Amino acid sequence: MKPIFIAFTLLFAIQISAQQKAWPNELITTPVKSNYQKTSTYAEVMSYIEALQRRSDLLHLEYMATSKEGKKIPVVVIANPRVTSPEEAKKSGKPVMYIQGNIHSGEVEGKEIVQQLMRDILLGDKKHLLDNQILIFAPIYNTDSNDKMKQGRRPSQEDSPVEVGIRANSQGLDLNRDGIKMEAFETNGLIQNVLNKWNPEMLVDLHTTNGTWHGYGITYAPSYHYAGEKAPYDFTWDVLLPEVTEKIDKNYKVKIGPYGYYSTRQGWPPTSIYTYNHHPRYIVNQMGLRNKVGILSEAFAHDRLYERMNGTYGFVAEILEFTHKNGEEMAAINAKAEKDAIDNVLNNAGKVKKGVRFKMVALEKKIANYRTYDYIPYTNKEGKKSYIRSGKIIDVPNVANLSKFDATISTTLPRGYYLPKSMKPIVDHLRKQGIKVTELKKRKKVTGAVFMIDELKNATRKFEGHNMATVTGKYVSKTSTFKKGDFWVDMAQPLTNLAFYTLEPQSDDGLVSWNFFDAYLKEQGVNTKPVEYPVFKSYPTK
Ligand SMILES: [Zn+2]
To answer: How many angstroms separate the alpha carbon of residue 42 from the centre of ligand 1?
Structure first.
């Protein structure tokens, strides 16, 4: 080779390696630029997305909603070739995967790594992740509260970064409790303009834990949806998460494990950990009721921000490597789950029962080795046994994992539900969730059952602004006539499991729970006499 040619080749090689390592300033995230002291503002996330947009034609930017304070919530669709509509996505035959950061504004690493990951996929070493899938990223779901930064907001994160935003949205709502009642602008955007519109096969929701000193960089949970189809859950729990656990350890040096809490009040070492609830108000759980995969990611709060970002980046990157290889299979499993749910209605309505209230129990399989910081027993001033945390991480063998949910109340699966015209607000809500409801074109006599409510009870303490309701009573057989203009929810539809959980009166996270029927029931005199629940459950005619 001629010397000049060698020099040119060398220069070219140097340039390439420099490109891989040194990104232009506008493609470096705020934490990296600030030595992990700061997290991105909404404006910084938007200019980062715009900087990517100037450099890549594979990116399509849209907005799921406008927040209360007028911020447009970005949804970044990345595909090769670029797609700009769900129709184009469908035509490509590639499954859609959705990753969401910053649902709780103080939990910032998801927001940061989503920006980095989009960059690395579009312009860096992860371009292959677009070969077989379409990726949708929402880096900053909770926009308003992100920018209300202050020191000391999340004590367990020990000011890393120094200042963070507020957990609730600017309406004062926890966005991860809003999946059924849909009161937040953000939830309406997510459900209607991401889930219903783009129909992703998987949702990954990025959080930071609130405190337990387990020994994992990330803890995870699949979608707990015990009224739904089991196959997407099984695939997540038995196939996806074990493979990702191995890969993230190898490629990112991060140990990950199942999400859960323990308390030293039960003694030491722990014999069990318990998870959070199965309710579909949590968006990850709702994915299961929608026959899809949901994954919760919780970075270890006590780690420094750069470690939490490394862990969360590794977790999402390895999940997307997995879906790059197995996305088609995942989509097929989800499609079969949807078909199974519909077939169950067509073949078994009026015959089988499904759970509507659940209690948490242990999985059959214990955790072989549970990683946690060790605690040392001592006797306190009152002479009682107490525990102090040490700096050592230990493996505790055979720890029970309370992350299964057994039904405490089950009720018969209907062929459909009828609602009178006056229940239009309920129907509007079902439609926002994506549930199909039709209007009757003519009078119809139907057989089935109604739920007679003996008692309506409201919780004395408010939760998310609600005195949540429970009803007691029983189903009684009935024949009713519905008129033209009344409503019919045909349960042979894709979101049948969600419709069941939402509409059943005894459900522990349905519309009754969130006070949608309180005013009507009180007007009908539920405080003094039994009242009929105004949603008629129909069974197939023999
Ligand atoms: Zn959170």
So the answer is: 18
Ligand 1 centroid from CA 252, angstroms: 23
Provide the CATH number for the domain formed by 28-347 in this structure. Answer: 3.40.630.10
- Return the closest-CA partner of residue 319 out of 97, 58, 131, 93: 97
DSSP category for residue 364:
S
Nearest to 142 by CA among 112, 184, 93: 184
Domain positions in the chain are 28-347, 360-405, 413-538
- Assign 7 a pLDDT band (cuts: 50, 70, 90): low
- Percent of the chain residues past pLDDT 90, beyond the cut: 93
Question: Which residues are bridge partners to 472 per DSSP?
Answer: 455
Q: CB neighbours (10 Å) of residue 197?
A: 17
C-alpha 104 to ligand 1 mean position (Å): 5
Rounded to the nearest angstrom, the distance between the alpha carbon of 207 and the centre of ligand 1 is 4
- CA 15 to CA 281: how far, in whole Å? 50
What does the pLDDT look like over 290-336, one tens digit per residue?
Answer: 999 999 999 999 999 999 999 999 999 999 999 999 999 999 999 99
Q: How much distance in Å is there from the Cα of 103 to the middle of ligand 1?
A: 7
DSSP-derived secondary structure for 482-540 = E-TT-EEEESSSTTHHHHHHHH-TT-TTSTTTTTSSHHHHHHTTTTTS-EE-S-EEE--
Q: Ligand 1 centre and the CA of 260: distance in Å?
A: 13
Rg, Å, the chain Cα set: 25
What is the pLDDT confidence band of residue 542, given thresholds at 50, 70 and 90? low
Taking the C-alpha atoms of residue 329 and residue 336, their distance in angstroms, rounded to an integer, is: 10
What SS3 string covers 247-259? Answer: HHHHHHCCCEEEC
| Beta carbons within 8 Å of 459's beta carbon, 6+ residues apart | 466, 467, 468, 469
